[in-house]
Design goal:
This protein is α/β, with parallel strands linked by helices. The chain has a single domain, classed as Uracil-DNA glycosylase-like domain (Uracil-DNA Glycosylase, subunit E, 3-Layer(aba) Sandwich). Helices cover 36% and strands 16% of the residues. It is built from six helices and seven strands; from the N terminus they run E-E-E-H-H-E-H-E-H-H-E-E-H. The strands form two sheets. Strands 4-3-5-7-6 form a five-stranded mixed β-sheet. Strands 1-2 form a two-stranded antiparallel ribbon. It is globular and about 45 Å long. The mean pLDDT is 87.
Length: 204
């Protein structure tokens, strides 16, 4: 078991709040097979995934997995199954949107984090910010994007497989919109179900 700390960024982007949040996350990095990347930190840090079972980010994610047919009563159960939760932006947003420069800069922190997981089979990009961040990372490292431009609705059912990892573009499972938009909840559930089934096929 390893205590992970998200990298602390020293750049002060103008469109995010600077919590300098570095949660201590106990994770068996060898066990992780699926990484789910959401958009940004919550405005209240006690709502972050690993802050506890009552944290809003955990509860909406728990519900998303329940919609897909998977019951996790605790963050420990989720981790034991080989799932790791994180965000593309390591600060919370000030408004609804952030600049491409902010996403690109923060992708360096996400890249450091993802490099710890050597056995990952699936990366789920939950929302446009996560998709853009992953594309910045792979463009920088390997010279090409892994997920093409286009609306998530149109591309989410396509297969994106690169260097042994399957990428699933989806919608964010955190925040108030998850509890409102039933059509997106249904699509998120489908994407989680497909991602989990892919991991199990790879392990068979």
């Amino acid at each position: 078991m390893q205590m992970l700390r998200e990298p602390i960024c020293e750049k002060l982007c103008s469109d995010v709040n600077h919590e300098a949040f570095s949660p201590q996350v106990p994770v068996d990095v060898e066990k992780i097979k699926l990484v789910m990347i959401s958009e940004a930190l919550p405005k209240e840090l006690n709502d972050y995934f690993y802050a506890g079972e009552n944290a809003s980010f955990f509860k909406t994610t728990q519900t998303a997995f329940e919609d897909a047919g998977y019951i996790f009563r605790s963050i420990a159960e989720l981790s034991d199954t080989g799932i790791y939760l994180t965000t593309a932006l390591k600060c919370s947003k000030q408004g609804y949107l952030v600049t491409a420069d902010t996403v690109k800069h923060c992708s360096y922190c996400l890249e450091q984090e993802l490099d710890l997981f050597k056995n990952v089979k699936v990366i789920m990009c939950m929302g446009d910010v996560a998709i853009k961040s992953i594309n910045y990372i792979y463009k920088r490292k390997f010279g090409e994007k892994v997920i093409p431009s286009g609306s998530t609705y149109k591309i989410r059912n396509q297969e994106f497989l690169y260097r042994g990892i399957r990428f699933y573009p989806s919608y964010t499972q955190t925040g108030d919109s998850f509890n409102i938009e039933k059509s997106k909840r249904k699509m998120i559930a489908e994407d989680i179900r497909n991602a989990m089934q892919f991991v199990r096929r790879e392990e068979a």
